[in-house]
Amino acid sequence: MSEGDSVGDSVHGKPSVVYRFFTRLGQIYQSWLDKSTPYTAVRWLVTLGLSFVYMIRVYLLQGWYIVTYALGIYHLNLFIAFLSPKVDPSLMEDSDDGPSLPTKQNEEFRPFIRRLPEFKFWHAATKGILVAMACTFFEAFNVPVFWPILVMYFIMLFCITMKRQIKHMIKYRYIPFTHGKRTYKGKDDAGKTFAS
Known about the structure:
Pfam family, one: Rer1
Function: Involved in the retrieval of endoplasmic reticulum membrane proteins from the early Golgi compartment.
Subcellular location: Membrane
Helix content: 55-70%
Largest sheet: none
Organism: Mustela putorius furo
Distance between the termini: 80 Å
Mean pLDDT: 83
Keywords: Membrane, Transmembrane, Transmembrane helix
Protein backbone atom coordinates (compact mmCIF):
# COMPACT_ATOMS: atom_id res chain seq x y z
CA MET A 1 0.00 0.00 0.00
CA SER A 2 1.53 3.27 -1.03
CA GLU A 3 1.51 6.55 0.83
CA GLY A 4 -1.85 8.34 0.63
CA ASP A 5 -3.88 5.19 -0.09
CA SER A 6 -5.68 4.99 3.27
CA VAL A 7 -9.05 6.63 3.76
CA GLY A 8 -8.80 10.29 4.72
CA ASP A 9 -5.11 10.64 3.91
CA SER A 10 -3.81 13.31 1.62
CA VAL A 11 -0.91 12.80 -0.78
CA HIS A 12 1.64 13.64 1.94
CA GLY A 13 0.34 11.10 4.50
CA LYS A 14 -1.41 13.67 6.72
CA PRO A 15 -5.20 13.64 7.16
CA SER A 16 -6.92 15.74 4.53
CA VAL A 17 -8.72 18.98 5.40
CA VAL A 18 -12.11 17.45 4.60
CA TYR A 19 -11.43 14.40 6.79
CA ARG A 20 -10.29 16.61 9.70
CA PHE A 21 -13.34 18.88 9.27
CA PHE A 22 -15.82 16.00 9.43
CA THR A 23 -13.93 14.35 12.30
CA ARG A 24 -14.07 17.60 14.27
CA LEU A 25 -17.76 18.06 13.39
CA GLY A 26 -18.47 14.52 14.65
CA GLN A 27 -16.63 15.25 17.90
CA ILE A 28 -18.64 18.43 18.49
CA TYR A 29 -21.90 16.60 17.75
CA GLN A 30 -20.98 13.77 20.15
CA SER A 31 -20.02 16.32 22.82
CA TRP A 32 -23.47 17.95 22.57
CA LEU A 33 -25.13 14.53 22.76
CA ASP A 34 -23.09 13.64 25.85
CA LYS A 35 -24.03 16.93 27.53
CA SER A 36 -27.75 16.36 26.80
CA THR A 37 -27.86 12.85 28.30
CA PRO A 38 -29.02 13.76 31.83
CA TYR A 39 -31.76 16.13 30.62
CA THR A 40 -34.38 13.56 29.64
CA ALA A 41 -37.45 15.81 29.96
CA VAL A 42 -35.84 18.67 28.05
CA ARG A 43 -34.71 16.34 25.24
CA TRP A 44 -38.20 14.91 24.80
CA LEU A 45 -39.81 18.37 24.94
CA VAL A 46 -37.52 19.51 22.14
CA THR A 47 -38.45 16.40 20.12
CA LEU A 48 -42.18 17.00 20.72
CA GLY A 49 -41.66 20.62 19.66
CA LEU A 50 -39.97 19.46 16.44
CA SER A 51 -42.86 17.04 15.82
CA PHE A 52 -45.34 19.86 16.28
CA VAL A 53 -43.41 22.11 13.85
CA TYR A 54 -43.27 19.24 11.34
CA MET A 55 -47.02 18.59 11.60
CA ILE A 56 -47.80 22.28 11.11
CA ARG A 57 -45.52 22.36 8.07
CA VAL A 58 -47.24 19.31 6.52
CA TYR A 59 -50.66 20.80 7.28
CA LEU A 60 -49.79 24.16 5.71
CA LEU A 61 -48.18 22.61 2.64
CA GLN A 62 -51.01 20.08 2.21
CA GLY A 63 -48.64 17.36 1.04
CA TRP A 64 -45.83 14.94 1.89
CA TYR A 65 -48.27 12.43 3.41
CA ILE A 66 -46.16 9.44 2.38
CA VAL A 67 -43.19 10.92 4.25
CA THR A 68 -45.40 11.45 7.30
CA TYR A 69 -46.71 7.88 7.08
CA ALA A 70 -43.15 6.53 6.84
CA LEU A 71 -42.14 8.65 9.84
CA GLY A 72 -45.09 7.24 11.82
CA ILE A 73 -44.15 3.65 10.96
CA TYR A 74 -40.52 4.36 11.91
CA HIS A 75 -41.56 5.83 15.27
CA LEU A 76 -43.87 2.86 15.89
CA ASN A 77 -40.98 0.43 15.30
CA LEU A 78 -38.78 2.43 17.68
CA PHE A 79 -41.52 2.43 20.32
CA ILE A 80 -42.01 -1.34 20.09
CA ALA A 81 -38.24 -1.85 20.46
CA PHE A 82 -38.33 0.50 23.48
CA LEU A 83 -41.08 -1.59 25.11
CA SER A 84 -39.41 -4.94 24.36
CA PRO A 85 -36.88 -6.66 26.62
CA LYS A 86 -33.32 -7.01 25.37
CA VAL A 87 -33.56 -10.79 25.60
CA ASP A 88 -36.88 -12.08 24.31
CA PRO A 89 -38.43 -14.31 27.03
CA SER A 90 -40.00 -16.57 24.37
CA LEU A 91 -36.50 -17.52 23.21
CA MET A 92 -35.32 -18.08 26.79
CA GLU A 93 -38.39 -20.20 27.66
CA ASP A 94 -36.75 -23.51 26.75
CA SER A 95 -33.21 -22.82 27.93
CA ASP A 96 -32.07 -22.18 31.49
CA ASP A 97 -28.90 -20.26 30.69
CA GLY A 98 -28.69 -16.50 31.00
CA PRO A 99 -30.74 -14.01 32.98
CA SER A 100 -34.48 -13.91 32.52
CA LEU A 101 -37.26 -11.68 33.75
CA PRO A 102 -38.51 -12.43 37.27
CA THR A 103 -41.86 -14.20 37.15
CA LYS A 104 -42.61 -14.61 40.88
CA GLN A 105 -42.78 -12.01 43.62
CA ASN A 106 -40.07 -13.65 45.71
CA GLU A 107 -37.56 -13.90 42.87
CA GLU A 108 -34.43 -11.78 42.78
CA PHE A 109 -34.90 -8.20 41.54
CA ARG A 110 -33.75 -7.71 37.96
CA PRO A 111 -34.26 -4.35 36.29
CA PHE A 112 -35.97 -4.27 32.92
CA ILE A 113 -33.32 -4.01 30.21
CA ARG A 114 -34.73 -2.65 26.97
CA ARG A 115 -33.88 -3.71 23.45
CA LEU A 116 -33.68 0.01 22.60
CA PRO A 117 -32.52 2.25 25.48
CA GLU A 118 -34.31 5.53 26.10
CA PHE A 119 -31.45 7.73 24.86
CA LYS A 120 -31.10 5.81 21.59
CA PHE A 121 -34.89 5.90 21.20
CA TRP A 122 -34.89 9.68 21.60
CA HIS A 123 -31.89 10.14 19.29
CA ALA A 124 -33.36 7.99 16.51
CA ALA A 125 -36.83 9.58 16.83
CA THR A 126 -35.37 13.09 16.64
CA LYS A 127 -33.20 12.24 13.64
CA GLY A 128 -36.26 10.73 11.94
CA ILE A 129 -38.22 13.96 12.40
CA LEU A 130 -35.34 16.05 11.04
CA VAL A 131 -34.97 13.78 7.98
CA ALA A 132 -38.73 13.96 7.34
CA MET A 133 -38.58 17.74 7.70
CA ALA A 134 -35.74 17.87 5.16
CA CYS A 135 -37.80 15.74 2.75
CA THR A 136 -40.56 18.36 2.78
CA PHE A 137 -38.20 20.73 0.95
CA PHE A 138 -38.03 18.42 -2.08
CA GLU A 139 -41.02 18.11 -4.39
CA ALA A 140 -39.89 14.61 -5.45
CA PHE A 141 -41.07 13.25 -2.06
CA ASN A 142 -44.53 14.80 -2.44
CA VAL A 143 -46.26 11.74 -3.89
CA PRO A 144 -49.99 12.38 -4.42
CA VAL A 145 -52.04 10.05 -2.24
CA PHE A 146 -55.46 10.01 -0.56
CA TRP A 147 -54.27 10.69 3.00
CA PRO A 148 -57.32 9.33 4.93
CA ILE A 149 -56.40 5.83 3.68
CA LEU A 150 -52.89 6.25 5.13
CA VAL A 151 -54.32 7.40 8.46
CA MET A 152 -56.63 4.36 8.53
CA TYR A 153 -53.73 2.00 7.69
CA PHE A 154 -51.57 3.54 10.40
CA ILE A 155 -54.30 3.28 13.06
CA MET A 156 -54.94 -0.36 12.14
CA LEU A 157 -51.21 -1.15 12.18
CA PHE A 158 -50.77 0.61 15.52
CA CYS A 159 -53.67 -1.28 17.11
CA ILE A 160 -52.55 -4.68 15.80
CA THR A 161 -48.92 -4.12 16.82
CA MET A 162 -49.76 -2.83 20.28
CA LYS A 163 -52.25 -5.67 20.86
CA ARG A 164 -49.52 -8.19 20.03
CA GLN A 165 -47.03 -6.37 22.30
CA ILE A 166 -49.47 -6.24 25.22
CA LYS A 167 -50.28 -9.95 24.82
CA HIS A 168 -46.53 -10.67 24.88
CA MET A 169 -46.16 -8.58 28.06
CA ILE A 170 -49.06 -10.41 29.72
CA LYS A 171 -47.88 -13.87 28.65
CA TYR A 172 -44.33 -13.37 29.97
CA ARG A 173 -45.42 -11.16 32.89
CA TYR A 174 -43.21 -8.15 32.48
CA ILE A 175 -43.74 -4.43 32.67
CA PRO A 176 -41.39 -2.34 30.53
CA PHE A 177 -40.74 0.15 33.31
CA THR A 178 -38.56 -0.38 36.37
CA HIS A 179 -39.30 1.68 39.45
CA GLY A 180 -36.31 0.49 41.44
CA LYS A 181 -35.68 -2.34 43.84
CA ARG A 182 -38.44 -3.02 46.34
CA THR A 183 -37.44 -2.24 49.94
CA TYR A 184 -38.87 -4.14 52.86
CA LYS A 185 -39.64 -2.64 56.25
CA GLY A 186 -38.54 -4.66 59.22
CA LYS A 187 -36.67 -4.53 62.49
CA ASP A 188 -33.79 -2.13 62.80
CA ASP A 189 -30.42 -3.57 61.92
CA ALA A 190 -29.14 -5.54 64.92
CA GLY A 191 -25.59 -4.29 64.38
CA LYS A 192 -26.48 -0.65 64.97
CA THR A 193 -25.41 0.94 68.21
CA PHE A 194 -26.92 4.10 69.52
CA ALA A 195 -24.88 6.66 71.37
CA SER A 196 -26.22 7.57 74.78
